[in-house]
Amino acid sequence: MNLSRQDAFELLKWYVEMGVDEVIGDAPMDRYAQSAAAAKAPPKPPAAPRKAPLPPRNFAESRAAPVTAPSATGSADELAASAEERAARCTTLEELRQALESFDECGLKRTAKNLVFSDGNPEGRVMFIGEAPGRDEDLQGKSFVGRSGQLLDRMLAAIGLDRDSVYIANVIYWRPPGNRDPSPVEMAQCRPFIKRQIELADPQIIVPIGAVPARELIGTTSGILRLRGQWKSYKVNGRDVPVMPSLHPAYLLRQPAQKKLAWRDFLAIRRKLDELQQQDG
Ligand code: URA
What we know:
- This protein has 281 residues and is an alpha/beta fold.
- The chain is 46% helix and 9% strand.
- It has a single domain, classed as Uracil-DNA glycosylase-like domain (Uracil-DNA Glycosylase, subunit E, 3-Layer(aba) Sandwich).
- It contains 13 helices and six strands.
- The longest helix is centred in the last third of the chain and has 21 residues, at 259-279.
- The protein binds uracil.
Protein backbone atom coordinates (compact mmCIF):
# COMPACT_ATOMS: atom_id res chain seq x y z
CA MET A 1 0.00 0.00 0.00
CA ASN A 2 1.45 3.37 -1.00
CA LEU A 3 0.39 6.10 1.38
CA SER A 4 1.01 9.79 1.03
CA ARG A 5 3.02 11.37 3.81
CA GLN A 6 -0.14 13.03 5.14
CA ASP A 7 -2.15 9.77 5.04
CA ALA A 8 0.66 7.89 6.79
CA PHE A 9 0.73 10.57 9.47
CA GLU A 10 -3.07 10.40 9.93
CA LEU A 11 -2.90 6.61 10.15
CA LEU A 12 -0.20 6.76 12.81
CA LYS A 13 -2.21 9.33 14.75
CA TRP A 14 -5.23 7.05 14.60
CA TYR A 15 -3.15 4.09 15.87
CA VAL A 16 -1.95 6.15 18.83
CA GLU A 17 -5.52 7.24 19.63
CA MET A 18 -6.59 3.58 19.51
CA GLY A 19 -3.92 2.75 22.09
CA VAL A 20 -1.30 1.22 19.80
CA ASP A 21 2.01 2.27 21.30
CA GLU A 22 4.31 -0.55 20.26
CA VAL A 23 5.49 -2.06 16.96
CA ILE A 24 6.11 -5.78 17.28
CA GLY A 25 6.81 -6.82 13.70
CA ASP A 26 8.13 -5.41 10.42
CA ALA A 27 5.22 -6.57 8.28
CA PRO A 28 1.54 -5.93 9.09
CA MET A 29 -0.60 -8.99 9.75
CA ASP A 30 -4.31 -9.02 8.90
CA ARG A 31 -5.72 -11.00 11.80
CA TYR A 32 -9.31 -10.50 10.58
CA ALA A 33 -8.38 -12.29 7.34
CA GLN A 34 -6.71 -15.07 9.36
CA SER A 35 -9.73 -15.62 11.58
CA ALA A 36 -12.10 -15.48 8.57
CA ALA A 37 -10.01 -18.18 6.86
CA ALA A 38 -10.00 -20.25 10.04
CA ALA A 39 -13.79 -19.94 10.29
CA LYS A 40 -14.17 -21.26 6.71
CA ALA A 41 -11.74 -24.15 7.21
CA PRO A 42 -13.28 -27.59 7.89
CA PRO A 43 -13.59 -28.32 11.62
CA LYS A 44 -10.46 -29.76 13.18
CA PRO A 45 -10.60 -33.24 14.76
CA PRO A 46 -10.81 -33.01 18.55
CA ALA A 47 -7.43 -32.24 20.13
CA ALA A 48 -5.52 -35.15 21.64
CA PRO A 49 -5.56 -35.08 25.43
CA ARG A 50 -2.66 -33.08 26.86
CA LYS A 51 0.03 -35.54 27.89
CA ALA A 52 2.39 -33.22 29.67
CA PRO A 53 1.50 -31.17 32.75
CA LEU A 54 0.99 -27.41 32.64
CA PRO A 55 3.82 -25.09 33.67
CA PRO A 56 4.05 -24.56 37.43
CA ARG A 57 1.88 -21.65 38.43
CA ASN A 58 4.04 -20.26 41.19
CA PHE A 59 7.32 -20.42 43.10
CA ALA A 60 5.98 -23.07 45.42
CA GLU A 61 5.33 -25.52 42.58
CA SER A 62 8.28 -24.58 40.43
CA ARG A 63 10.69 -27.19 41.80
CA ALA A 64 8.28 -30.06 41.44
CA ALA A 65 6.53 -29.58 38.10
CA PRO A 66 8.12 -29.30 34.64
CA VAL A 67 7.17 -26.56 32.18
CA THR A 68 5.86 -27.90 28.91
CA ALA A 69 4.45 -25.37 26.43
CA PRO A 70 6.27 -25.56 23.07
CA SER A 71 8.62 -22.84 21.87
CA ALA A 72 10.51 -21.91 18.73
CA THR A 73 13.88 -22.01 20.48
CA GLY A 74 13.57 -25.10 22.65
CA SER A 75 10.95 -26.84 24.72
CA ALA A 76 9.51 -24.75 27.49
CA ASP A 77 10.96 -27.23 29.97
CA GLU A 78 14.42 -26.59 28.57
CA LEU A 79 13.89 -22.83 28.64
CA ALA A 80 12.79 -22.90 32.26
CA ALA A 81 15.66 -25.23 33.22
CA SER A 82 18.12 -22.88 31.54
CA ALA A 83 16.68 -19.94 33.52
CA GLU A 84 16.92 -21.96 36.72
CA GLU A 85 20.59 -22.78 36.09
CA ARG A 86 21.52 -19.20 35.24
CA ALA A 87 19.75 -17.77 38.28
CA ALA A 88 21.22 -20.35 40.66
CA ARG A 89 24.78 -19.45 39.59
CA CYS A 90 24.37 -15.80 40.65
CA THR A 91 25.74 -14.86 44.04
CA THR A 92 25.04 -11.11 43.94
CA LEU A 93 22.20 -8.95 42.66
CA GLU A 94 24.55 -7.41 40.11
CA GLU A 95 25.40 -10.88 38.75
CA LEU A 96 21.69 -11.63 38.56
CA ARG A 97 21.03 -8.40 36.68
CA GLN A 98 23.82 -9.26 34.22
CA ALA A 99 22.51 -12.80 33.80
CA LEU A 100 19.13 -11.33 32.83
CA GLU A 101 20.76 -8.82 30.47
CA SER A 102 22.16 -11.75 28.50
CA PHE A 103 19.09 -14.00 28.83
CA ASP A 104 18.12 -13.89 25.14
CA GLU A 105 15.92 -16.96 25.42
CA CYS A 106 13.01 -14.95 26.86
CA GLY A 107 10.92 -13.68 23.94
CA LEU A 108 9.84 -10.59 25.89
CA LYS A 109 13.40 -9.30 25.73
CA ARG A 110 13.10 -8.96 21.95
CA THR A 111 10.22 -6.49 22.04
CA ALA A 112 11.23 -4.57 25.16
CA LYS A 113 13.50 -1.54 25.10
CA ASN A 114 15.13 -2.22 28.45
CA LEU A 115 15.49 -4.81 31.16
CA VAL A 116 13.58 -3.62 34.22
CA PHE A 117 15.41 -5.22 37.12
CA SER A 118 14.49 -3.11 40.12
CA ASP A 119 14.39 0.28 41.76
CA GLY A 120 14.87 1.45 45.31
CA ASN A 121 17.37 0.15 47.82
CA PRO A 122 18.31 -3.56 47.79
CA GLU A 123 19.21 -3.16 51.48
CA GLY A 124 15.67 -1.94 52.24
CA ARG A 125 13.75 -3.92 54.86
CA VAL A 126 10.64 -4.22 52.68
CA MET A 127 10.58 -5.67 49.17
CA PHE A 128 7.63 -4.72 46.95
CA ILE A 129 6.98 -7.01 44.00
CA GLY A 130 4.76 -5.97 41.10
CA GLU A 131 3.69 -7.79 37.97
CA ALA A 132 5.47 -6.47 34.88
CA PRO A 133 6.94 -3.22 33.63
CA GLY A 134 4.69 -0.85 31.70
CA ARG A 135 5.64 1.68 29.05
CA ASP A 136 7.39 4.18 31.34
CA GLU A 137 9.33 1.46 33.14
CA ASP A 138 10.38 -0.01 29.78
CA LEU A 139 11.68 3.38 28.64
CA GLN A 140 13.55 4.13 31.87
CA GLY A 141 14.63 0.59 32.81
CA LYS A 142 13.35 1.00 36.39
CA SER A 143 10.40 -0.51 38.27
CA PHE A 144 7.31 1.56 39.05
CA VAL A 145 8.26 4.92 37.62
CA GLY A 146 5.00 5.68 35.75
CA ARG A 147 1.63 6.76 37.18
CA SER A 148 1.33 3.60 39.28
CA GLY A 149 4.79 4.25 40.66
CA GLN A 150 3.89 7.80 41.60
CA LEU A 151 0.89 6.54 43.54
CA LEU A 152 3.08 3.87 45.14
CA ASP A 153 5.47 6.63 46.26
CA ARG A 154 2.59 8.48 47.95
CA MET A 155 1.43 5.28 49.64
CA LEU A 156 4.98 4.63 50.89
CA ALA A 157 5.31 8.20 52.16
CA ALA A 158 2.07 7.77 54.12
CA ILE A 159 3.77 5.12 56.28
CA GLY A 160 7.13 6.86 56.49
CA LEU A 161 8.89 4.92 53.71
CA ASP A 162 10.45 5.91 50.41
CA ARG A 163 12.61 4.44 47.67
CA ASP A 164 15.68 4.65 49.88
CA SER A 165 14.06 2.36 52.40
CA VAL A 166 12.34 -0.17 50.16
CA TYR A 167 13.38 -2.41 47.28
CA ILE A 168 11.06 -2.76 44.27
CA ALA A 169 10.99 -5.47 41.60
CA ASN A 170 8.55 -7.35 39.37
CA VAL A 171 7.86 -11.01 38.65
CA ILE A 172 8.41 -10.22 34.92
CA TYR A 173 11.54 -8.36 33.82
CA TRP A 174 10.54 -7.01 30.42
CA ARG A 175 7.44 -5.19 29.28
CA PRO A 176 5.00 -7.55 27.55
CA PRO A 177 4.12 -5.89 24.20
CA GLY A 178 1.02 -3.74 24.47
CA ASN A 179 0.90 -4.63 28.20
CA ARG A 180 -0.62 -8.03 27.44
CA ASP A 181 -0.61 -10.68 30.17
CA PRO A 182 2.67 -12.61 30.36
CA SER A 183 2.35 -16.17 29.04
CA PRO A 184 2.90 -19.20 31.32
CA VAL A 185 6.24 -19.85 29.61
CA GLU A 186 7.39 -16.26 30.16
CA MET A 187 6.33 -16.52 33.79
CA ALA A 188 8.25 -19.79 34.11
CA GLN A 189 11.36 -18.23 32.57
CA CYS A 190 11.34 -15.24 34.93
CA ARG A 191 10.37 -17.26 38.03
CA PRO A 192 13.84 -18.58 38.98
CA PHE A 193 15.24 -15.04 38.68
CA ILE A 194 12.73 -13.30 40.94
CA LYS A 195 13.04 -16.17 43.40
CA ARG A 196 16.83 -15.67 43.44
CA GLN A 197 16.41 -11.89 43.59
CA ILE A 198 14.36 -12.26 46.77
CA GLU A 199 16.98 -14.59 48.26
CA LEU A 200 19.81 -12.20 47.44
CA ALA A 201 17.96 -9.10 48.71
CA ASP A 202 16.86 -11.05 51.80
CA PRO A 203 14.09 -8.62 52.89
CA GLN A 204 12.33 -8.66 56.28
CA ILE A 205 8.89 -8.20 54.74
CA ILE A 206 7.61 -8.92 51.23
CA VAL A 207 4.67 -7.07 49.69
CA PRO A 208 3.33 -8.57 46.45
CA ILE A 209 1.21 -5.89 44.81
CA GLY A 210 -1.58 -7.23 42.65
CA ALA A 211 -2.90 -10.70 41.96
CA VAL A 212 -0.09 -12.05 39.78
CA PRO A 213 2.82 -11.58 42.22
CA ALA A 214 0.59 -12.51 45.18
CA ARG A 215 -0.31 -15.83 43.54
CA GLU A 216 3.31 -16.45 42.59
CA LEU A 217 4.50 -16.10 46.15
CA ILE A 218 1.63 -17.67 48.01
CA GLY A 219 0.89 -20.46 45.56
CA THR A 220 -2.85 -20.02 45.18
CA THR A 221 -5.34 -19.10 42.50
CA SER A 222 -7.43 -16.87 44.81
CA GLY A 223 -8.23 -13.31 43.77
CA ILE A 224 -6.30 -10.41 45.26
CA LEU A 225 -9.35 -9.02 47.09
CA ARG A 226 -9.46 -12.28 49.01
CA LEU A 227 -5.70 -12.49 49.56
CA ARG A 228 -4.92 -8.90 50.51
CA GLY A 229 -4.70 -7.76 54.07
CA GLN A 230 -3.72 -11.13 55.54
CA TRP A 231 -0.23 -12.04 56.62
CA LYS A 232 1.21 -15.05 54.83
CA SER A 233 4.76 -16.29 54.79
CA TYR A 234 7.38 -17.17 52.24
CA LYS A 235 10.59 -19.13 52.85
CA VAL A 236 13.73 -17.15 52.07
CA ASN A 237 17.10 -18.69 52.85
CA GLY A 238 15.42 -21.08 55.32
CA ARG A 239 13.60 -18.26 57.13
CA ASP A 240 9.82 -17.58 57.11
CA VAL A 241 9.44 -14.04 55.83
CA PRO A 242 6.11 -12.27 56.44
CA VAL A 243 4.19 -11.50 53.24
CA MET A 244 1.43 -8.88 53.03
CA PRO A 245 -0.35 -9.01 49.66
CA SER A 246 -1.89 -5.69 48.69
CA LEU A 247 -3.65 -3.99 45.81
CA HIS A 248 -1.89 -2.79 42.69
CA PRO A 249 -1.69 1.01 42.36
CA ALA A 250 -2.98 0.75 38.75
CA TYR A 251 -6.15 -0.86 40.17
CA LEU A 252 -6.39 1.88 42.80
CA LEU A 253 -6.13 4.53 40.08
CA ARG A 254 -9.14 2.93 38.40
CA GLN A 255 -11.01 2.25 41.65
CA PRO A 256 -10.04 5.04 44.07
CA ALA A 257 -12.67 3.93 46.61
CA GLN A 258 -10.55 0.81 47.22
CA LYS A 259 -7.66 2.91 48.54
CA LYS A 260 -9.06 2.41 52.03
CA LEU A 261 -8.23 -1.30 51.75
CA ALA A 262 -4.67 -0.57 50.63
CA TRP A 263 -4.33 1.91 53.49
CA ARG A 264 -5.21 -0.87 55.97
CA ASP A 265 -2.57 -3.12 54.38
CA PHE A 266 0.06 -0.40 54.53
CA LEU A 267 -0.72 0.31 58.18
CA ALA A 268 -0.24 -3.40 58.89
CA ILE A 269 3.13 -3.25 57.11
CA ARG A 270 4.15 -0.25 59.24
CA ARG A 271 3.15 -2.05 62.45
CA LYS A 272 5.07 -5.19 61.43
CA LEU A 273 8.18 -3.13 60.66
CA ASP A 274 8.00 -1.47 64.06
CA GLU A 275 7.47 -4.84 65.75
CA LEU A 276 10.48 -6.37 63.97
CA GLN A 277 12.59 -3.34 64.85
CA GLN A 278 11.70 -3.73 68.53
CA GLN A 279 12.56 -7.44 68.42
CA ASP A 280 15.94 -6.64 66.87
CA GLY A 281 16.62 -4.36 69.84
N1 URA B 1 3.14 -2.13 37.11
C1 URA B 1 3.88 -3.13 37.63
O1 URA B 1 3.36 -4.15 38.06
N2 URA B 1 5.21 -2.95 37.67
C2 URA B 1 5.83 -1.85 37.25
O2 URA B 1 7.06 -1.76 37.33
C3 URA B 1 5.02 -0.83 36.73
C4 URA B 1 3.68 -0.99 36.66
